[in-house]
Amino acid sequence: MNGLLRAAAVARKDLLVEWRGRQTTTATGMVALLMILLLGFVIGSEPGRAAAVLWVALGFAAVVGIPRITQSEVEQQALETLLLYPGSREHLYWGKSVALLIMLAALLVALLLLLGLLFSVDVWSHWGALLGVGMLGIVGLSAIGTLLAALVLHVRGRELLMPLLLLPLALPVVLGCVRLTEAVLADTPAGLWPVVLVAFDLVYLLVCPILFEVVMEEV
Amino acid sequence: MVSGLSRRFGAVWAVQDVTFMLPSRSVLLVVGPNGSGKTTLLRLLATALRPTSGGAAVFGLDLIRDADAIRGLAAFVGASPGVYDLLTAAENLRFAAAMYGRPHESVMPWLERTGLAEVAPHPVRTFSQGMRRRLALARAWLTTSRLLLLDEPYGGMDRDGNQIVDVMVAEARRRDGSVVLATHEWERGVKIADTVLALAAGRPADILPVDRFTASGLAPVTGGRR
Question: Which of these, A91, A175, A180, B129, is most buried using a 10 Å CB contact count?
């Protein structure tokens, strides 16, 4: 119970800081918007390409936004204080992960609306299924992203390292989301992709909190 | 009880072979010039760093094995306040209270005691350095920890701020707690300390009761500064 309260406090604090500073939201929003516009111009805005464009944009936005969830603690010189609170550091992981999940979910909703406009995709009639797929993808991205954000915290050139680590590890999630989103928009069977996505999410959710504690043991 | 506590960064020993005993209800003043290992010693005791060798028992708990339990007993105020600029003073303390498992506790008493009650709803980015340090002290105070670790607590403080530090230390002592206080302003520190530990290049140069401590004795280890 205490752990849940601590995780909730971290998530609330991160979201409050983000709401007032809007640093991560602005950065991820701008990258996603530019990716969608660029890809729309280059490969065309046919509805069949919407799924891939959506998840590529979200993936790159995540690369930009994810490091900020721990980097902001360093900039505020508050990381040591945060790590010295009593209790398991897994609680910090869950709090930061939930905050990231909420930020990415907000971005996903905005991107779905944009996609509906720019790619002439019928988002409204598939709203529930698209959000479901989106949540599966975002859970995976948040789970692995929170761990990697801690891992690259004190690494010089983390802007380079983050995509090198995140993109390969998030590839199964992104690929699964693209295929599932395509299936939802085309009203075709999804095959085994939901199972793949859920399996990767579960593995990340089980392993990443434990590794986070190890990574944060002495930063 | 701290025994042979050492910490190395690369090839450099920041703290080497520090041994001392700190009974309950006592205050240890750590003095020494820049780079003498004062902050590293406090960070080791706060479990922010792992010792390279040696160890310590904090209220019977092992510094390495029981680090998490020690974090529940110790409050560390470092040289940087570690507060969030975009949160208000009250929000910063509410977050700290929640992290100590007391999310519904009122933070106003602590803000009042540190003279920040009037600016409780203001964002910390509008605060001066001294006000930030007061907020960091309030955060440590609300934990009612048995071990207070204060790194340069008088830095950037006005006279009222200095008194807040002294009251906080006295209160910790009354609670059967212990205080380790590292400061350049040893003239203030000796007024509330029981024992003085002088560090030089990470090694303990001298440890003696405060009544036997003299400025002339300190001068060689502080590089001549009195």
Answer: A180
User: Which pLDDT tens digits describe chain A residue by residue (219 residues)?
Assistant: 688 999 999 999 999 999 999 989 999 999 999 999 999 889 888 888 899 999 999 999 999 999 888 888 988 889 999 999 998 999 999 999 999 999 999 999 999 999 888 888 888 888 999 999 999 999 999 999 999 999 988 787 777 888 899 989 999 999 999 999 999 998 888 888 999 999 999 999 999 999 999 888 765
- Which residue range forms the structural domain that includes residue A178? 2-215
CB contact under 8 A, B99 and A6: yes
- DSSP category for residue B52: S
Q: Which of A76, A82, A96 is the best mutation test for B, with the most CBs of B within 10 A?
A: A76
Residue A164 amino acid letter? L
Q: How many CA atoms lie within 13 A of B172 on its CB side?
A: 34
- Quote the tokens at residue A209: 């909190």
* A55 close to A177: Cβ distance less than 8 angstroms: yes
Report the distance separating Cα A3 and Cα A6, nearest Å: 5
**Total domains, chain A:** 1
- Hey, what domains does chain B have and what are their CATH numbers? 2-58+69-212 (3.40.50.300)
Spacing of C-alpha B69 from chain mean position: 18
Pick the residue of B95, B104, B122, B145 with the most A CBs within 10 A to test the interface with A by mutation.
B95
B103–A5 C-beta distance less than 8 A? yes
Strand partners for B88? B123
Whole-number Å distance between alpha carbons of B82 and B110? 17
Q: Does B47 touch chain A (CB under 8 A)?
A: yes
The reply to whether A13 touches chain B by the CB within 8 Å rule is yes
Q: What ipTM describes this predicted complex?
A: 0.89
User: Cα A123–A127–A130 angle (5° rounding)?
Assistant: 90
Return the closest-CA partner of residue B148 out of B83, B209, B192.
B192
Q: B53 and B6 in contact (C-beta within 8 Å)?
A: yes
Max Cα–Cα distance, chain B, nearest Å: 50
d(CA A117, CA B19): 69
Query: Nearest to residue A31, comparing CAs of A60, A66, A54?
Result: A60
Give me the helix-helix angle, A23-43 and A90-118, nearest 10°: 40
